[in-house]
Design a protein that fits this description.
This protein has 230 residues and is an alpha/beta fold. It has 9 helices and 8 strands.
Length: 230
C-alpha cells in the first residue's frame, strides 16, 4: 500500500483571542489565571463564552480547539497513521496551517492541549529543539493541497451528494494522494471557497455529525478500502 491520505481539518475553530474582545472580563479573568496576556491565549468557549458572543463574525462556530484535539487524537492513534499512510493538517479560520508530525503524541487532557497550541502560536514550532511535532505557517487550503500533491480532493458536507463513507473511501483509494476535508468547527457549512477546491463533495449522513465521529468513520473505512485490515 503506497497511498498516502491527507486528512485536513478545514476552517478549524482555532485562533488567538481577537483584539476586539481582549478587554472582556471573561478574557481578563482567564488571562490572570494563566499568567499570560490575552494576545497569547487561544480562544476557547469553555472560558470565553460570554466574550465570544460579542464577535461580529461567525461567533457560534469560534473558540472550539477541543474539536481539533479530539479529531487528532483519533486520527493519530489509528492503524492507518501507525502504518505510515496518514498525514494530518489543521487549517484554521484565520488562514493558518498546522502541520502535525505522524509521530506526535498529543496531551490527552484538553487544557494541556490548548497550552500546547498557545506555545505553537508563539514559537511557530514545538518543540523548539529537535524534530518538530507541530509546526505553524501562514497559508490556506490551496497551500496544503499543493504541498501534498493532492490528486483527488473530497469535502464531506451535508450539502454534498449522498454517498456512504465506505463508498467515498473506495473512490479515494483509487488515487495516490487523496485529500479529505472535514470541518473543524461545530456548526454551519464550508465556505464557497473551500467547496470550490474539492473535486467531489459528499454527504455521508443526512444529519450533521460531530467532526470526530466523521474522522473516526473516514479513517476506518479508508483502512478497510485500502486493505490495511486484511
Amino acid at each position: 500500500m503506497s497511498r498516502l491520505l491527507s486528512l485536513v481539518l478545514a476552517e478549524s475553530a482555532v485562533e488567538l483571542v481577537p483584539k476586539e474582545i481582549a478587554s472582556h472580563s471573561a478574557v481578563r479573568a482567564w488571562s490572570r489565571r494563566k499568567g499570560k496576556p490575552a494576545s497569547e491565549l487561544i480562544l476557547d468557549q469553555n472560558y470565553h463564552y460570554a466574550a465570544i458572543h460579542r464577535l461580529a463574525r461567525m461567533a457560534e462556530r469560534r473558540g472550539r480547539p477541543d474539536i481539533v484535539h479530539y479529531c487528532l487524537l483519533l486520527a493519530l492513534g489509528s492503524p492507518l497513521n501507525m502504518e505510515g499512510h496518514l498525514r494530518c493538517y489543521v487549517h484554521t479560520v484565520n488562514e493558518k496551517v498546522i502541520t502535525v508530525n505522524p509521530k506526535a503524541r498529543l496531551p490527552r487532557q484538553s487544557d494541556r492541549f490548548v497550552s500546547l497550541l498557545e506555545q505553537l502560536f508563539s514559537t511557530r514550532v514545538v518543540p523548539r529543539v529537535g524534530e518538530p511535532l507541530l509546526s505553524l505557517n501562514d497559508g490556506g487550503l490551496t497551500d496544503i493541497i499543493r504541498k501534498v500533491e493532492g490528486d483527488y480532493v473530497v469535502a464531506l458536507s451535508t450539502l454534498g451528494k449522498p454517498k456512504s463513507m465506505e463508498e467515498v473511501a473506495g473512490l479515494m483509494v483509487d488515487h495516490e494522494h487523496p485529500v479529505l476535508l472535514i470541518g473543524g468547527f461545530s456548526t454551519g457549512h464550508f465556505s464557497k471557497e473551500t467547496l470550490g477546491l474539492a473535486n467531489e463533495v459528499f454527504q455521508i449522513y443526512p444529519k450533521s455529525l460531530e467532526a470526530w465521529t466523521v474522522v473516526a468513520r473516514a479513517v476506518y473505512d479508508y483502512e478497510r478500502a485500502s486493505g490495511l485490515d486484511d
